Amino acid sequence: MLAVPDSRIKNILIQNSLAKESDLEDLAMMAKSSNISFYDAVLDKNIASDEIIGQMIAQSLGFPFVILSRTAIPEELFLVTPEKVARKLKSIAFGKDANGLKIAMNDPTDKLTIEMLSKKTGLNIIPYFATEKDILNALRLLRKDLQTACENLINEEIDINNTAILDEAPVSKIVDLIVDYAYQDKASDIHIEPEEKNLLIRFRIDGLLHDALRLPKNLHVRIVSRIKVLSKLRTDEHLSAQDGKMRLTTPYEVLDIRVSIIPVADGEKVVLRLLSSKKKQFSLSNLGVDDSELKKINKALGKSYGMILSTGPTGSGKTTIIYTLLKQINIRERNITTIEDPVEYRIAGANQIQVNIKTNLTFANGLRSILRQDPNVIFVGEIRDNETAGIAVNAALTGHLVFSTLHTNDASASIPRLIDMKVEPFLVASTVNLIIAQRLVRKICDMCRMPVTLTMNDLAQRIPVEIILNTFPDQKSFIVFQGQGCKICHNTGYEGRIGIFEILEISSEIRKLITTRCDADIINRQAVKEGMKTMLADGLNKVARGITTIEEVLRVTKVETI
């Protein structure tokens, strides 16, 4: 536990003029409803960096402050607090001199831990304050890379002189090790890809794939078989695709993993999707929704009927934001029923249905059945066809609050998309309350971010001038940030992702445009005129706040350079 209670952190922020008391009270309520700590909510809100808040807390406690990620820690000191112990105690030895052993602690007032370490080492313990995030980052830096860890594991388990060395390799431990490293690296997926001579393991981190490990090809069949056993798939089937699910107990949580196996030229390729419940404790704020847009969303959530749509390409976080909205309105007095393909995360108290084509449980058929279950709120995983679109719109018209997702490039394009699905324009105008379009951009790594000064001319070469002036009025030059690349961010300059949004509220004027079958461009212009912030504008605001880079925003919004 952090030594400083939430009330003290609030006082520290107020005393240093970083936030108002009323804003922090609202933030505390949001953190509680989202099941995240107040400290994490402060970081997500970008009130101050982890380092700045850490310095203030250390000063408040009366202990020296250390930034471990920028400190060279001797390897022998890492043995004083091995990784599992360090994670549990949130403490790590980082220095030693004539005065004693320096220990970075998230709670330097913890006398029991200090006495235990003193007894173990026979040295005087000098406690320093370090943030939990910094301690965890330091542990990631100090651990062996996956390739070395895997080779060490194999060598420890078997006799090196054994000619059948690969047949004795501890495959179950190798699979556990791969999943453990992927989880710590915050990977969303693990790709296990057979090549002609090797087995390649890749992690998808922040939307991009990174090579993580190469193993001898001989291990491929045994690793795939191990995964098949864990996910209850056929081990004797090698020529057809199989999908399943498995659950692994890690030091951090019981992790659900979605498994997909397909035959490729050199064997079977496996993709593991890590479904972490701890990492899905989101609020709208830490997803990246600005306060001005929150009012539109809360207004739509306050209605008892109508439709809220989330749009964007695959992997843009559509389902995540819908889950976050459902959790926000999930109370015992409401019957929330969903039909999804697949059901990725459990929502406590909601009735979640898995689409099953074999039993003819499609989105359309499932939705018909849901309407006979007396629901208040319905989530249709995706509107894929005319039949599902028609039933969903009619459900929204007859007193149900309906959530769903569509694949469109921006918010206004969702209107003609529904009309193309044979939904009458007057029904679209009557039922759709809000459309949320989004993309995910990578966040600048906190550990290696550096300021960069840009001029208006630099921006004008890549972004239309009128958009620049809306975001950066009356400025000839301004400071933005970029990551230099470090071990924490795998030398990419980025760590983590955040959403950029375009939230279209269906006003009376826009309803008129819908009923007259106006195209998406006209609807979009009217929405901007009424105050809608485009995804590009929202992205540039996040650039100005030092959250992401111009390159990231342009990459995901696909704005053509001038």
What is the number of strand segments?
18
Oligomer: single chain
Level-1 CATH class name of the largest domain: Alpha Beta
| β-sheet strand percentage | 15-25%
Find the structural class using helix and strand composition. Answer: alpha/beta
Distance between the termini: 52 Å
CATH topology of the largest domain: Rossmann fold
Largest sheet: 7 strands, mixed
User: What portion of residues is helical?
Assistant: 25-40%
CATH superfamily of the largest domain: P-loop containing nucleotide triphosphate hydrolases
Indicate the CATH architecture of the largest domain.
Answer: 3-Layer(aba) Sandwich
**Radius of gyration over C-alpha positions, nearest whole angstrom:** 26 Å
Summarize model confidence as the mean pLDDT.
88
- Largest sheet: spatial strand order: 12-11-13-14-10-15-18
Describe the structure.
This protein has 562 residues and is α/β, with parallel strands linked by helices. It folds into three domains: 6-141, 2-Layer Sandwich (GMP Synthetase, Chain A, domain 3), CATH 3.30.300; 144-277, Beta-Lactamase (2-Layer Sandwich); 281-442 and 497-539, P-loop containing nucleotide triphosphate hydrolases (Rossmann fold), CATH 3.40.50. 40% of the residues lie in helices and 24% in strands. It is built from 24 helices and 18 strands. The strands form four sheets. It has a seven-stranded mixed sheet with strand order 12-11-13-14-10-15-18, sandwiched between helices. β8 (254-264) and β9 form a beta hairpin. The longest helix has 14 residues, at 21-34. It is globular, with a radius of gyration of 26 Å. The model has no long low-confidence stretch (mean pLDDT 88).
